[in-house]
Write a structure and sequence with these properties.
Helix 1 runs parallel beside helix 8. By secondary structure, the chain is α+β, with helices and mostly antiparallel strands. It has 2 domains: 154 residues, FAD/NAD(P)-binding domain (3-Layer(bba) Sandwich), CATH 3.50.50; 101 residues, Polyamine Oxidase, Chain A, domain 2. It is built from 8 helices and 18 strands. The strands form 5 sheets. The protein has a 6-stranded mixed sheet with strand order 7-2-1-11-18-17, covered by helices on one side. A 5-stranded antiparallel sheet has the order 13-14-15-12-16, with helices on one face. It has a 3-stranded antiparallel sheet with strand order 8-9-10, with no helix packed on it. The two termini are 27 Å apart. The protein is globular and about 65 Å long. Helix content is 28%, strand content 31%. Bound molecules: flavin-adenine dinucleotide (FAD). The site of flavin-adenine dinucleotide has 41 residues, from helix 1, strand 2, helix 4, strand 12 and strand 16. The site of flavin-adenine dinucleotide (FAD) has 41 residues, from helix 1, strand 2, helix 4, strand 12 and strand 16.
Length: 314
Amino acid sequence: MTNIPGVAIIGAGMAGISCARTLVQAGVSVQLVDKGRGIGGRMATRRVTLDGCDLTFDHGAQYLRPTRDDFAQVLHHAGARGWESDTALVGMPGMSRLARNLAGELPISQQVEINAITQDGGLWHLAGPAGQLQARRVVLTIPAPQALALLGRAHPLAAALADVRMAPCLTLMAAFPPDSPRPFSHRLAPDHPLAWIAQDSSKPGRSAAAVTWVAQAAPEFSATHLERTAEEIETIMRPLLCDVIGAKGEGALYARAHRWRYAQTSQPLGQPFLCDADGALYVGGDWCLGAQAQDAWQSGQAIAQDILARQNAV
Ligand SMILES: Cc1cc2nc3c(=O)[nH]c(=O)nc-3n(C[C@H](O)[C@H](O)[C@H](O)COP(=O)(O)OP(=O)(O)OC[C@H]3O[C@@H](n4cnc5c(N)ncnc54)[C@H](O)[C@@H]3O)c2cc1C
């Protein structure tokens, strides 16, 4: 890459996108990189084609309930639609579309994992299996434990990162024929192993070719079974789901499990971001402020504002 971007952002989830949008609007050159195949991180949608029909499963964030006007406005502009109420917003045909719409034309290199960052002569060098990138500033918008692994335990920000706690979540995606039971559109039962179950096909803009469900296991259940294979997790979770919704397990058209190792913050940092002494390295994400996409968005905004304030002060 010949042009060195002003800011390299590692992580194209809601925090990275939020930060990049504000910087680009202010004229700062930005390069986002993400190890994933899609954009949006935990704002994730799995697409499956069954007998020629496209099905979608929101296997990460289920819906967004913005409490801040600026975030609500941004979501409406990105095409968010109400699910069951005007306050629970979803993307169509899936949550990842919202992230993609929010990212717009931002420069994002996908499937680029960064596993080493070093600073030398006023420049950051980011390296990974896909190659190298240089930038004047670096923003990490990745889960706190992954930021800690990247920076190392000797880094001055390590102690603060180590205090953050993020819980895992095992998720089951399952599809049943259109005439199968639909006892509810969603169910929150914190004491059940499947603490959250959503009838994904009841969200607006989804295919009517199947009844699709997303079940998310409670934190304790998820931690207990975290190291099992995806097949084992599916085998354990599928009967639990069928029992709750009154469906026959063998009648499932599709069933897959997904493992989120760092799903939701259980102990946040308590401030919108971390930054080194000279404002050259920032670390942010939902875990700074809470466990929701709005927290990620706010963290990204705060980082961008801080970078712009420092630039204007020079
Ligand atoms: C199962 C589940 C259910 C949820 N339900 C809701 C909900 O209903 N409502 C709600 O508001 N929120 C919900 N959340 C939380 C919400 O998804 C997150 O708060 C938000 O998406 C986090 O955004 P982020 O940008 O901070 O991090 P992420 O979305 O995690 O983005 C980080 C990105 O960094 C990339 N990355 C990581 N390491 C590297 C690396 N070394 N190199 C390159 N790229 C890297 C990842 O691929 C990822 O795309 C849920 C989350 C999960 C997992």
